[in-house]
Design goal:
By secondary structure, this protein is mostly helical. Helices cover 83% and strands 0% of the residues. Helix 9 crosses helix 16 and helix 13 packs antiparallel against helix 18.
Length: 478
């Protein structure tokens, strides 16, 4: 199967940008762990979780509610007013949150005043940057969107490496560096959009219909973002109370690696929502189901190969990144990857709800499972630590997807997310992984530190490809 020829140029560029962004996320880890230590990395993890929790509040849902309205709108004045008003509201709300958190810090945690300021500022400019990125994506400017992502990542790696080399790196300087880069990229994208005539200084006015056009639609997505944070980040904060910095770093970094599948998914989904909106406008549901199914099929084809490679190599890679000799069990990665797989394959159902104006169900469904996940984390993590967190996450991802599926069926979704052949590929994947675990336990291959891992990769990929060819011959499934 020649997958490369099936992928358009824009998707290839998106792949390059996602590869750069993910690689940057991992390359920064050894800069921190080798430069300022594992304990500082654990603090950085907590700060990252807090920022991700603040983003839904700062964004006010504009990255969904406003961008959805602008996806098919070519009016310069309307685009400008909506984007400028969104940025203004984000800034006002950020100032209110800062005032509140600053007061709390001043009364109870004076030693955290600087940290509080940096977290709020980073969250604020990250929200603006994300809004501008989504605006570019809604206008199908995927190539320049990708270029800016690559630029931001490379600039951060370059400057942080300089601090590391000159032994000037600490947690505060790292946060200041992140803030500076967010500001620079936000300004550059803003100026670029003006140059492209997607925005104009002439319409730097504030939309008077604030509640109807901004606040009300955004509330749904604020709650949605917070519930997703409960599922994907609250476990780290709870684990921080029960685990050493090493174990917290192991868990968080393994979760980061599983995010590779999210990045891979975004390569395929980035243009899905605008295309579905157009098909919905033409009432062409058969093409909607076909588009979702084809996107998912390509995603499965690529991601299975990535997962097999990553599961084998990640324990060695993560031990290096964390500056630790601790051996990490492969089942941690497998569980994370399964969770991400389940969530990514539900994207088609989520978008189907959005194009049919059923955001409220996604909100309710997300809030319910967000609360369930938080309760499970609180109940299970104290006794079972990482295993408890993984079990809770898996249960929530399965429950969320099944409830989403049932609702989509009720509102008229008559297609299938996957083709028949994809289910066989999942079977081949699990058999190949089981063979790998058996060979690993029997210690049948021992050729040296790195050579052994790559030998496993070649062997397991060969076994998986043999299963694919065998399945094609026996079941006529390509």
């Amino acid at each position: 199967m020649n997958y490369i020829k099936q992928i358009p140029k824009e998707t290839k560029i998106r792949f390059l940008s996602e590869l750069t962004v993910k690689s940057g996320s991992f390359l920064i880890i050894p800069i921190i762990t080798y430069g300022i230590g594992l304990n500082e990395y654990s603090y950085f993890i907590i700060i990252t979780c807090v920022i991700n929790g603040l983003l839904p509040l700062f964004l006010l849902g504009f990255n969904f509610s406003i961008i959805k309205k602008l996806a098919t709108n070519e009016n310069l004045k309307n685009n400008s007013i909506k984007v400028f008003s969104s940025i203004s509201l984000i800034s006002i709300f950020s100032l209110l949150i800062f005032s509140f958190t600053f007061l709390i810090s001043y009364i109870f945690f004076k030693n955290l005043l600087v940290l509080n300021l940096l977290i709020i500022l980073i969250s604020h400019f990250t929200a603006i940057l994300q809004l501008l990125f989504e605006f570019m994506r809604s206008k199908n400017k995927s190539n320049i969107f990708s270029i800016f992502q690559i630029f931001e990542t490379l600039l951060f790696l370059f400057l942080s490496s300089l601090f590391f080399l000159f032994n000037e790196l600490n947690l505060i300087r790292l946060l200041l560096l992140i803030l500076s880069i967010k500001i620079i990229c936000s300004c550059l994208i803003f100026l670029y959009l003006i140059k492209l005539n997607y925005l104009s200084q002439k319409y730097l006015t504030f939309d008077r219909k604030i509640i109807a056009n901004y606040i009300s639609p955004g509330l749904v997505f604020i709650a949605l973002g917070l519930s997703e944070w409960l599922i994907n980040f609250s476990d780290k904060l709870i684990l921080d109370s029960f685990l050493s910095p090493l174990y917290l770093s192991i868990y968080f970094t393994a979760a980061m690696f599983s995010g590779i599948l999210n990045s891979l998914g975004s390569i395929f989904w980035w243009d899905l929502f605008p295309k579905l909106l157009i098909l919905k406008k033409n009432n062409d549901y058969s093409k909607i189901y076909s588009l979702i199914r084809n996107k998912n099929s390509l995603y499965v084809d690529f991601s299975i190969f990535f997962v097999l490679i990553l599961i084998i190599l990640l324990p060695t890679i993560q031990a290096f990144l964390l500056n630790s000799n601790f051996v990490i069990n492969h089942y941690i990665y497998l569980t994370f990857f399964i969770c991400v797989f389940i969530h990514q394959l539900s994207t088609g159902w989520e978008f189907f709800c959005y194009i049919n104006n059923k955001e409220k169900f996604i909100l309710i469904n997300s809030i319910i499972w967000g609360i369930i996940s938080f309760v499970l984390y609180l109940l299970i993590i104290p006794n079972f630590k990482i295993d408890g967190a993984l079990f809770s996450l898996l249960c929530v991802k399965i429950g969320y997807s099944l409830s989403l599926r049932n609702y989509c069926k009720k509102i008229g979704f008559k297609g299938n997310l996957l083709k028949k052949r994809e289910f066989f590929k999942f079977t081949y994947f699990f058999i190949s992984f089981l063979i790998f675990i058996i060979i690993l336990k029997l210690d049948l291959i021992n050729l040296g530190f790195i050579i052994t891992d790559f030998t496993y990769v070649l062997l397991i990929l060969t076994i998986y490809c043999l299963f694919l060819n065998l399945g094609k011959k026996l079941f006529n499934i390509s």
